[in-house]
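Worked problem 6 (solution included).
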Amino acid sequence: MISSRYAVIVLLLLGLALVPTVIHSYYGLLDQDGLATDAINPNLAGFHSSPTARKARWVKEMFDSEDWIERNYVSRQGESARLFAARSYDHKRLYHHPELAILYGMDFKDEGIYRLPGSPEVPVRLLTKRTGKGAAAYTLLYDDEFVSNPIGFQLKTSFELVFSPRKPLTLLLVFDKDLPSHHALEDSPAARVLLDAVESFRNQRTGDIASSL
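Solution. The predicted structure is:
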């Protein structure tokens, strides 16, 4: 039996424990920032695009996302890069080896975080094929900030997410099938498309601010 003098403290602690349950289970509150992947320009860095045959059902099952695009970008010179972008409130599905699902069947070597000259603020996870040509690169955005360490990011935001509406994580991944493993990423179609895609996506915020003035 609990002493009556501790009743108020116990009730406060129980009420505090119920906050995340109410937020996420009963109300399912989400922080919708108005951004969307389909706002990414279909023409990037001199490349014109066309959608791939990726199915919405597959993306929903893999990443719990309904906000996504996948496009093939091709330049007049015949260079090409495939861009996949998705947003999800289930963060782990996006940051935990997304290449295994998007580029299924390819064997990649993780080269770690790469900082492109001219855009050091964009942390790019570089993956090169172990045999033959081909490389992938991706970056993650959360609340307009780049995520270079997903595990650290999860630990940092875990307390915040318990007591506030969930915010989406954004993945932008590009694949260049013709890039040799020894080739510098910054000179590749993949880098040009990825950086322009990031800029195009983030510019939605700039447009929203400008339209409100």
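Discussion: The chain has a mean pLDDT of 83.
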